[in-house]
From TrEMBL:
Record-given protein name: Putative phosphoserine phosphatase
Keyword Hydrolase: yes
Assigned EC number: 3.1.3.3
TPR repeat locations: 576-609
Pfam family, one: SpoIIE
The organism of origin for this protein: Leptospira biflexa serovar Patoc (strain Patoc 1 / ATCC 23582 / Paris)
InterPro entries cross-referenced by the UniProt entry: Bact_Sigma-Reg, PPM-type-like_dom_sf, PPM-type_phosphatase-like_dom, TPR-like_helical_dom_sf, TPR_rpt
Record key words, sorted: Hydrolase, TPR repeat
Residue stretches making up the PPM-type phosphatase domain: 287-501
Amino acid sequence: MYERENNLSIHTNPFPEILDDTTYNRILKDPNYWISQSLEDKIIQQISLSLDISGILYHVGTEALITNAYDLLPLDDSRIDLVEMIHRLPILIGRLTRAVYLNVKPISDQHFKFVFVYLPEYQEKWYDAVFFQGMLNGLALLFELKEFQIRMTKTKLFGIHVSHKELGEGIQFGSDANEYELEWSDDNLYLSRSHLTKENVSSRHRVMVTSRSETELEEMSIVDVRDVVGKSRELAIENRDLEAAVEVLKSFKQELEKKQHSMAKDLRLAKNIQKGLIPEIIPDWNGIQFWTGFSPMQEVSGDYYDYFPYQTDKLGVAVCDVSGHGVPAAFITALSKMLFSNFKKPKPSETFKLINRELLDLVKQQGYTTCVYLLIHSDYKVSYSIAGHPRPILFRHQTGKAEVCEGDGTFLGMFPDAGDTYRDFYLQLEPGDKLFLYTDGLTEAENDHGHAFGETKLIQLIEENANASIQETVELIMNHHREFTMGTDAMDDITLLGLQLSPKLEEFNVIKSEGDKAYHSKDYPSAVVSYEKAHQILPRELNTQLNYGKALAYSGDFEKAISMLESYNKFKTNHFKSHAILGYCYYQMEQYEKAELEWKKAYSINDSNLSNLYNLAQLYRKLNQKQKMKDVIDKMKHIEFTYLHILPLEKKWESLPNEIN
């Protein structure tokens, strides 16, 4: 369906970011090919962005039951009725998935309950609900039921992507179980295997016999699975929009596709640019840990968050919400990053005054942004200012209570006299305290009943997870938010930034000090032990990461050192030493191309340090790349002609054989 609706050429993989071409073609060709639940979820979510697939999934469930029912029948010619088939249904579920198993509970002779139990590590998806109900419809179709009712009664989900009336009335959402019911009033039909054949039946083993009697052949008929599936698909087509209307719209669609293709290309470019502007992870700073939840509504977001180091004694953190969406909003987020980087004032209100004036000049009141901006001092005193933005929520570890902080102020970039409204407010962080900054897309989002998520629920979740880490707390809130809004369309970008002063800060400082002492005395194995413990407490503390990586390298644990130093370099610290040591590790692991790349990066960051050029020269000597080695030696001469390693390198260069073109 997706290939047809998007005019894709046959077997052209439309999801290169999700899966490779080989896997995609195997999915198309082999119905028995298994994929992980996480990959299945990514594929379905991607397709559902452009298609309403609920009806398709329902009929896929119906077909799955019909095409697999044959394997549930007795091996001889004995017949079973619908009740017996229902009791065998858990076997089929076990074949189709390893994430869930089925319990069947009879309520009466013609009324059954189906309880789907998920394994602890899996979570129910909205499309599971539609697919399972489609399977029950397949039972009704196979046994030719005319008077029956299928309904969902309970689900752990808090909402479903499709109309609830399609699944049943009075569904208990957020329940402790996932349950369906099937009730019918028809006379029993019996089903058995058959070796009978029909004309043009290519799969003889998929022919079944139905009868109104358990023993006699009265009213016997032959059921070809292919025919039943064909009828099911015909019904699916009939339930879709009128074909005539589709044909009329196709002419408009083709014209729009050309424009959309161009727009999509621009949006992808804007998305990649914005991805570089917004940090994926904020590093730990001075014992404070950060974690973010970020969910843009479109390709590019009007929400923006960032951090700004002030030498070593302060750190600025901002969360902004630009008016509107799409590319214009993304443009203002880019301006915001530039302005916050330029205006690092000692008070947040002063920073706001300057940014407001610059935005007025640049944007000409064609857009504005709300913002909360805070400065964290080395003594954990926090000063902050608010510009038309939701106020922060502070959780006190000592009391276990969360409260909304004070503060107000008007938008940035809209009013010339807005500077008069900005005020500075203060709070003091204690070990274990958490502070949450967020955009209104989080609290104003509504569920399918029109109820907002709200500030009260946010505070409740924060307090209920008092002992969780800041990462666990943010991720739990975002998961609850997704469940709460399931079945609704996103109306705004969503950002949640949480920070916590580590409750183990004192322990961390003692352990890190022990590691630093061992490192400086060149007792690298002891340093590794201490840094490992410190890293477990504050895993994104950059100084610890760097020293830990260097200690691992000097201890000879190159593989683990590579992992630590690569993680450190993701924060774009531009520390030449981290790239130099990483190049050394790759060299020792005989990964020479990567070693060359890292030493070149180190040289580009600090071109006055000749050790990186020396390492490159030794690498080219080992690879017998004589011309490259000469070019590096010439660079070294140009920088410092008296460098003592140049002469020995030249002798080694002369001993190399000439390169063969």
